[in-house]
Amino acid sequence: MPIGLSVHIGLNQVDPAAYDGWSGELGACEQDAVDMARLADAAGFDVTDPLLSPAATAETVTATLEAAAGRLAEGDILFLTYSGHGGQVPDLNHDETGDRLDETWVLHDRQLVDDELFELFGKFAKGVRIWMLSDSCHSGTVARRLPEMLSPEELDRRFSTADPAEVGRKIRAMPQSVQSAVYRRDRDAYDRIQNTRTAKDLARIDASVLRISGCQDNQTSSDGIVNGLFTATLLEVWRGGAFPGSYRGLHREIVKRMPPDQTPHLFQTGGPNSAFARQRPFTI
What confidence tens digit (pLDDT) does each residue in 43-68 have? Predict the structure, then answer.
């Protein structure tokens, strides 16, 4: 019988010492992780205790995913969620053909580069399904420009303010100024991470990975009072398990309910499994 494991990461703040004095305070990311763990438990997954703020270090996240890879075999499934800030570092191994920036998860003690995440996925056996939700964004440039991109009415509706500094505290993107300062200070470490890893498009990932991110790469994900906007919308669509459709159907219904400047993105990578996206969400 297939096994289902779930891992949930949520950061309402990071270590300022690791991010040039920036604490990255958010309001709803820990609750996102707790609610996703609760959903997974109801669906029959073996749930790892959520990794919240100080517990969500690069070492702990890496070890947790490596342990999951050691347990899962063909036909099993990993449900992985991340809620927190997204960041970027310059792409050194030329696996990003567009903006030449690698995306990151902003963990408590350092950024986890997407090359690292793909390398971890490469440790999973052929035929394992990985279902990942990432309620974060990756463009500090867009975050800085958001007040210019939205009307005053939309700013007020989404954020109850038109103050750029206040908006910056309500979206899940590391500010560009912090990204630059952290990379200048820790460049050797981040360069070493990339230079010791195979480019993503060359990495062999035998597991089938299906991901919905909270927004497109050139958009931002909104924080919230209880949940982030993406996570809250997913829970609304899922309706405690009453949603009758597939993963693709879940994505379509979430997009319908989201504002035009935050469009969740679904994509698949890794080992071919055309049936995966047509399955019922959260099915072991």
Answer: 999 999 999 999 999 999 999 999 99
